[in-house]
Amino acid sequence: MRTSPRVPRAALAVAAVMMVLASSARPASAQTAPRTDSATTTPGDQSQGPLVVTPISRRVVFTPDVKVTTVNGRTSTFVGGSAGVEIDDRFFIGGAAYGMVAPLDTATMFYGGLLTGYRLVGDDNVAITVRGLIGFGQANVYASFDGGGVPYPVPRGRYGPAYGYYPYGYGYPYIWNGFFVAEPEVNASVSISRAARLTAGASYRATAGFYGPESQINGFAGTFGIQFRF
Hints:
Strand order of the largest sheet: 1-2-3-4-5-8-9-10
CATH topology: Porin
C-alpha cells in the first residue's frame, strides 16, 4: 500500500514553522532588563567628582631698575623702580617713579604714576610682559640765552632770574613746569632664583602739557633691573 506524499510534506512544513518561531523568540528572551540600581548615572550628578575651587594667587613684587634715555638731546640716566601686586601670576598693578641721576647742565627731570602689566607668554622661569605707566612729572629744561629773546613762558635762570647774574656773561634760563606722561613698555624677565628675576625692557616716554618743545623730554628708553617677588 503506497503512503500519500501529503503527510510528510505537511509535517515538514509544521516543523519549519516551529523552528522559525523558536529562533525569533530566543533573542527576545536573551535581552537584559535595564539597570535600575543606584549605579545608574545621569548628566550633572556627582559621579563626575566634586567641584574644586582654585584660589587666586597674589604676590608682592618690587623692582628697582635703571633707565637709559635721552633728555634735551643728551643721554640721561634715571633710577627708580616699581612696586605692586602680581595677581594669578599674570596681572600686575602698582606704581612706579623715576628721577634723573646727577642732573645734567641742560635738564633735570622726574616722573611717576600708576603702573599696570600683563604677562603675554612664558612662566616663572622666562616671560614676556607688557606694561604701561600713566602719571605726572616735572622737568627743568635749560637753554643758552644771550639776550636775543626769551622763550615762553618767561624762564627762570639756574643761577637766578632770567635777567640776573650769570657766569661768563651769558644767561642760562630754563623752562620749568609739570606734565602728563604715558610710557608703554615691553619687558622680558629671566628667573635667577625662586624669588628674583633679571629684567630688561624697551619703552617710549610720551608727555603732554609741557611749556616748550615736548620733544626735549620725550624719547625711547632702555630699562634694566632685578625683580623681587614675595
